[in-house]
Amino acid sequence: MTTSLLLIIQIVLVIILVIAVLLQKSSSIGLGAYSGSNESVFGAKGPSSFLAKTTFTIGFLFVVNTITLGYMYSQSAQSSVIDEMVPTTNVAAPAVPAASTAKPETPKK
């Protein structure tokens, strides 16, 4: 149940992250002909726009959710369904007949 919820959250985060990245202004217009220091990623003001902060936050949540999902799937991979099975039958196995000590007869010709 928990991994299903986290997987749904992961898909929603991916969609929101893709939309947030696509809404941002491209800083490589014309191979950098129009980009200045104010459009660089680590400029004098830093990532001060709302969209940049949102993208960072969603990206951070995406990474944390990915690590959590990986941990939960690795924990579930260590257990087996066979380990949780409980025998519910009360049918006894048939007893093996005791081996006879008599010599087998030799076939007659």
Which characteristics define this entry?
109 residues; mainly alpha; 3 helices; 50% helix; 0% strand; rod-shaped; protein-transporting ATPase activity; transmembrane; membrane; transport; protein transport
Can you put this structure into words, describing what you see?
It is built from 3 helices and no strands. The protein is mainly α and 109 residues long. The chain has a domain of 27 residues. About 6% of the residues have low confidence.
Brief account:
One of its GO terms (cellular component) is plasma membrane. With 109 residues, the protein is mainly α.
Tell me the Rg in angstroms: 33 Å
| Uncertain residue ranges | 29-35
Q: So what's the oligomer here?
A: single chain
The run of helices and strands is HHH
Task: Find the count of extended strands (DSSP E, 2+ residues).
Answer: 0
* Helix share, percent: 40-55%
Beta-strand content bin: under 5%
Q: How many separate helices?
A: 3
Mean pLDDT value: 76
What structural category do the secondary elements indicate?
mainly alpha
- Major β-sheet, in short? none
What distance lies between the first and last C-alpha atoms, to the nearest angstrom?
A: 74 Å
Overall 3D shape: rod-shaped
Secondary-structure topology with pairs:
Layout: H1 2-23, H2 50-78, H3 81-84
